[in-house]
Each structure stands twice: as C-alpha cells, then as structure tokens.
Amino acid sequence: MKPILNIAAYLFVSLDNLTELSAKILDECNSSELKGTILLTGEGINMFLAGSEPKLRGFLNDLRQDPRFASLQTKDSWSETQPFKKMLVKIKNEIIRMNHPAIRPEEGRANFITPKKLQEWLDRGTDDLGRPVVMVDTRNAFEVEYGTFENALHFNIEKFTEFPDAISAHKDELADKTLVSFCTGGIRCEKSGLYMREIGMQHSYQLEGGILKYFEEVGSAHYTGSCFVFDEREALEPNLDTIPLERSIRKKQIA
Q: What are the catalytic residues?
C-alpha cells in the first residue's frame, strides 16, 4: 500500500469561536505532521489532509471527540508522496460560496442517493419509478474537462455562485426527469440539492460522497476520464490512482 493517506471531508454544523478553534486544530495538525487545507466557517468544516495513516487517523479520532464533529466521514485515497506543501487552517464566511444564505444544509440535507444505487439507475437509464435520469455536474468548467459522468449536463460555469442561475434556466425542460447532482466530494451538492428543491425541482437528488465516493465504491462505470482534486496530484483515476503525467492537462497547458 502507498504510504500517504489522503482524506477529503466536510460537515455542515454550526460553529463558533472560530479563531480559537482554528489555532487548536492547526496545532494538532502540525503535531501530527499533517499537511493540507482546512476551512472553518460558521456553517461547518471542509478539509483536505494528507499524512501517515496512524497520525491522520489519530487526528480524526481526536477531532470526533468534539460532539460537533462526531459524524464526520472521510473519502480516502493513497499516494506515494505528500501532495500538499504546507498546513493551512483558514476562516471563511461559507464552506462553499453560493450567495444564498437561506440555503442551510446543517438544518436538513437534500435527498441523496448512494453510489451503488446510482449505478443501478444508470445501468437501467431510469430511476425506480421509470423516470429518465439526468446527471447534473455542479463543478466549474475546467474541472469538467478532466472527466465527468456520461451524458452529464453541465453549464460551463467559472464559479459555483453561477450555478443557481444556470440550473434555473433549465428548470422547465428538466421537469419530468430525475436529477442527480454531483461534484468532487459532495460538498457543493449539499447546497445545490437544496436549491434545486427550493425552486421546485422535486425529483432531484445529490450523489452521496460525490465522485470520489463513487470511485471508491463503484469505479469507472458510466464515468469517463478522471476527477480533478485540489492538491498536487491534480486528478485521480476511477481506481483512485493519480493520473499519468502524460495525460496531465496542466502539463499540456504549460507546453
């Protein structure tokens, strides 16, 4: 097994005393020789971390001793080397900016579908009630270039704040479809799923755990390409390996 454990995790939960919490978490990460980025906001936590498995698991176990983080779940992958250059803990206004303050996932999640169940629907082409299934990619255009679900709907957006207007413009044509929104690890869909329900798209779901959890539990079925990740690995294949250098989009752009 590769020596470096990489985790992606988020949790929508009300947090306060962010400055004190930030200093405490940063100290614990440094003590465990972890690297990556953690975002803290009043609405929750988002993290991408890497380090040796014992130390990273130990940090997560300690973090979950705080009742606010007890339900934190991770998406795991492995690498030969440390993909982050330093350890950062940042305080932000939102975990993922959408500019719709009424959308509050900590007060109740959107409907979700597990990776295995999604595979069943995509194998069949319909949901359990016979409705056509449409995959809705909530990510930015450059991320979609690396890979996405087959025949997925995407909007060539440059930032997530553009998503509400983009999906609203397609509301009528999607009214009789079952929609499954997805992103890298699930965090954007916590908000997009609630927004879609708010504007009346009742047959909508979010992919639980995002693309990374789908790769972990299903693999490449109905997915083409790789998945961009926010670290030095650039992107992951459906087997959760780093993409080969010769296929690197960044390398091609630099060349």
A: 183
Using an 8 Å Cβ cutoff, are 24 and 50 in contact?
no
Residue 255's pLDDT band (cuts 50, 70, 90): very low
Contact (CB, 8 A) for 134 and 177 = yes
Only one residue has tokens 């972990």, namely 216
Q: CA separation (Å) from 253 to 84, 141, 249? A: 21, 15, 6
The reported pLDDT for the residue numbered 102 is 63
The Cα 243–Cα 233 span in angstroms is 8
> Which residue is associated with the tokens 């206004």?
93
Q: What is the DSSP letter of 175?
A: T
The strand ranges marked E within 13-59 are 35-41, 44-52
Closest CA to 152 of 208, 225, 97: 225
Burial class (CB in 10 A: 0-12, 13-18, 19+), 180: buried
pLDDT digits (tens, 9 = 90+) for 49-82: 999 999 999 999 999 999 999 999 999 999 999 9
